[in-house]
Structures are given as structure tokens and as C-alpha cells.
Amino acid sequence: MGALDNNALVAVIGAGAMGAGIAQVAAQAGHPVKLYDNRPGAAAQAVAGIDRQLGRLVEKGRLQPEAREAITARLQPVEAIEALTDACLVIEAIVENLQVKQALLLQLETLCAPHCILASNTSSLSITSLAAGLQRPQQVVGMHFFNPAPLMALVEIVRGLATAPAVAAQLYETAKAWGKQPVQTRSTPGFIVNRVARPFYAESLRLLQEGAADCATLDALLRDAGGFRMGAFELTDLIGHDVNYAVTCSVFDAFYGDFRFQPSLVQKELVDAGRLGRKSGQGFYSYAEGAQRPHADELQSQATVECCVVEGNLGVLQPLAERLRDNGVAVSERAGLGLIQVGDATLALSDGRLASQRAREDGLRNLVLVDLALDYRSASRIAVSWSADTTSLARDQAVALLQRAGLRVSAIADLPGLVVLRTVAMLANEAADALLQGVGSAADIDLAMCAGVNYPLGPLAWAEQLGLGYTLRVLENLQRSYGESRYRPSLLLRRCDAQGARLHE
User: Fold this and answer.
1) Partner residues linked to 186 by β-bridges
2) Sheet holding 75-78, edge to edge
3) pLDDT score of 247
4) Catalytic site residues?
5) Structural domains in the chain, sorted by start
6) Which residues of 273-291 are buried (b: 16+ CB within 10 A; e: fewer)?
7) Residue 505: its pLDDT value, please?
8) Is the Cβ–Cβ distance between 312 and 337 less than 8 Å?
9) What does the pLDDT look like over 45-55, one tens digit per residue?
10) Which of 44, 183, 261, 470 has the most CB atoms around it within 10 Å of its CB?
11) What per-residue confidence (pLDDT) applies to 333?
């Protein structure tokens, strides 16, 4: 089934930032739009606000004046819900409360024509539950936009148990016609994005709680080594800790207390203290006038390094050796276990074990573990940790080598999987479970994480790039270190590794 015709009336209920944004998207796509809010005058104010935003686009040369006039003319604020009876699609963007949304959908079902699609912009509520009790539950579907709706490309099209396939398909095509990147997902807790993204926050929060490093250093590593647009602490400050913590609790409860989604006491303390992030002026960082953002910790070495030895196949770490060569380091090679020797130091890519544990188990002295980077050729920072027996000379030599590659080096405490590696492994693990459980296709899961939360690479594609066997080994070592079900590897990762299969077929 194709997209809704441009002449089809779209109604949006809720004139807050999200509702107004959705109304703008539909109007820009050519639809007549009615915007309703139960607060008197709110819809008219929202339309005026949309017009001002369009005016700014005109001033920047990104929109023609006549296009602004046409879009605004298609937006009609209404003061009574009864004015929506001729809508072909109604999108509700009201308070995130199951009972309130259910009552609204019941009312809409009596007002609107049988063919009208009733869409909810909920970010976490069950579409199946929202449709329960309706005479036409097949017409109810999730259409989850991301804020700000006019700018964010992703839309999750969410099927409830009773949603008609044709209804979901038409909404999917409509979102495409609106210039969005839709993905299809089942109505499960968190859908795709709010489920798969949980480890991004959870692992940084745990690392902070365990004293790995400070917020600024952990954020810098996720940005400068991991390629993420923001670190977890600056991102949760932006989202608001009340919102982010509530979503985590909702997903945790919906999965019956699965420890993969366990909320953080560190974040709860911020919420309890009213330190909600940017909107309150204080979160992990201060946003008071004149406040200075703390700098990431960075090691300095006075050692002189001119050469190193690569032993065996470095695998994922191989581009680092090439970068060292490009920066004038003499790199020789010999058989071995995938290590870099420089002076007294032995460098190795983390495999999810403690540095001290790996040094003991593998018989390695002066072991310095190197964290994962999205691209070792372009990363500007890297994390390291070292075993308890590593001498200060060996540490200096390892740091000096990495600095010769043009990397800023940040040390973290000896914890399993360092920072980027454990975060990526856990994101891939959750994405694999979502794929196994039919939440979405591999392509849609990766697209959702890139388009919805700006990940530099889809978690499933990232796991395949690293190698499923390596990703699985990291998770197994994390689980062995912590002894918790939180780090249990997805059955799909085990199966694909055993079969030599791919996640993206």
C-alpha cells in the first residue's frame, strides 16, 4: 500500500514541542493539517511558533518565502476535538500516560471514520495496550518521532498485536514520503532505540561508579575514540536525568527486572537532588553562567620511542601499527600472539579481561591494554589500563608510543573491557537480542541507532566489523569478571559465531 495522498487531512493532538514539530513535518510534506490541544489557545500559539521557525529558515536562505506562506496556510489550529472528524490520520503527542492515551483513542474512534489511522507518538508505551478495548484495534499503530521532529530523520513504525499489516505499511510509506527514514518494529519495551541504547548510558554510569575515571574523561573517550557525537554524561545532561532515568526504569520494569537494564544509583541520586542536567543548571556538569567544562585527564610521557615490534596478527588493532609507521616509528614484525612490544612494555587490545588477570593468565609482563577505537587511523584519543606489576618505565614507554601515533592517552582504572570496547560490545549484544526476538530487522536496527541517536556505526555492523568471535569473547570475559547475567552473551551471537553466519543476511 502506498503513502497517504497529499490531500489527505492529518490531525495532530498535542501542541507541545513534539506535536508542533510533527504538524510542521506533515504540512511541509503538503498535507492539510489540523492541530488540536485541550489548552485554550495552545494550538494557535504553536502554529505561530512554527511560522516563526519557517521565517528563520527563509532568513537563512533555506526556504523560499512563498513556501513558508504555503506551509503556514496548510496549518489550521482548532479548539474542539470534534473538528478532527474528517482526518485520515490522527497522530497523538500528548502526555506519556497509558490511561490518558487510551481514553483519547476511545474518543477518537467514535469521532473519526472507520478508515482513519490512529497513530501514537509514544516512546515507550505498548501499542497493544493502547489499542486494547477499541472496536478497531487494527487501525492503531505507533509512529514514534524523535525530537526535534523537523530535523531528526528517524521514525519508528510500531506494530501492536492487532495492528493491520496494511495500516503499518501505509504509515511506513507515508513517513518515507515525508522525507523521513522509517523503521518497522514490534511493540516491545523501548521499541528499537530506547531498548538498544540502554547500555550506552549504563556502562558509563557503572564505570563512573567503579572509579574508572571522571565524567569528562569517559565522555571524551566515547567521542574521540568511539566516534560517538556525545559522551553518555553530556548526553544525559542534555536529555534530562528525570527523563532518562524514567525510561531506564520503565524498560527495566517491563523486562521484569532483567539486570541488563538495571537503573543506576548514581543517576538516581542526581534525580533525587534535582540535578536534572542543562534544564536545572546542574547535572554531571555545571551549566551556571561562566562555568568551565572540566578537561579530560591526559597522560604525558617523557620517554623517547623510535621503534616497536609487532608480534603476530594485531587484528582490529592493525591500523595502529600502520599509523605508527606513518608517523616515523620503525615497526618490525615477528611471529607471536598479536602484541606490540616497545621497550619493557607489552601492548595488547583488550579482550574484556582485567589487565592484571590477563597478565597472569597469559604470562605477560608489563602489560598495557589498549581500548577499542572506531578507527585507529583517525581517532584522536585512546584509553589504556595496565596490570598491577607494570613498571612506571614500561607505562611511560607505552604512552610515548601511542603519543608518537598522534594520540592523546587517557588512563582508566584496571576494569574489564575499558570504555569504548565494553560499551560497543554491550550495544551489539542488546541489538543481537532484539534481532533474535524479532523486534526489527538487522538493517532497521542499525538504521534506527544511526538515524535516531547518531551512532557512528550500527551496533550489529560494528560487531561484524570487529568479528563476532571477538565480540562474543569480550562479553564472555565481562560476564566472567562480574559474575552477572547483565553481561550474558546473546544466543544469536553464539549461534552465528558457531555457524560462521552473519547478523546482516
Assistant:
1) 159
2) 75-78, 33-36, 10-13, 89-92, 117-120, 140-145, 154-159, 181-186
3) 93
4) 123, 144, 156, 194
5) 10-187 (3.40.50.720), 195-280 (1.10.1040.50), 307-411 (3.30.750.190), 422-499 (1.10.1040.50)
6) eebbbeebebbbbeeeeee
7) 81
8) yes
9) 999 999 999 99
10) 183
11) 96
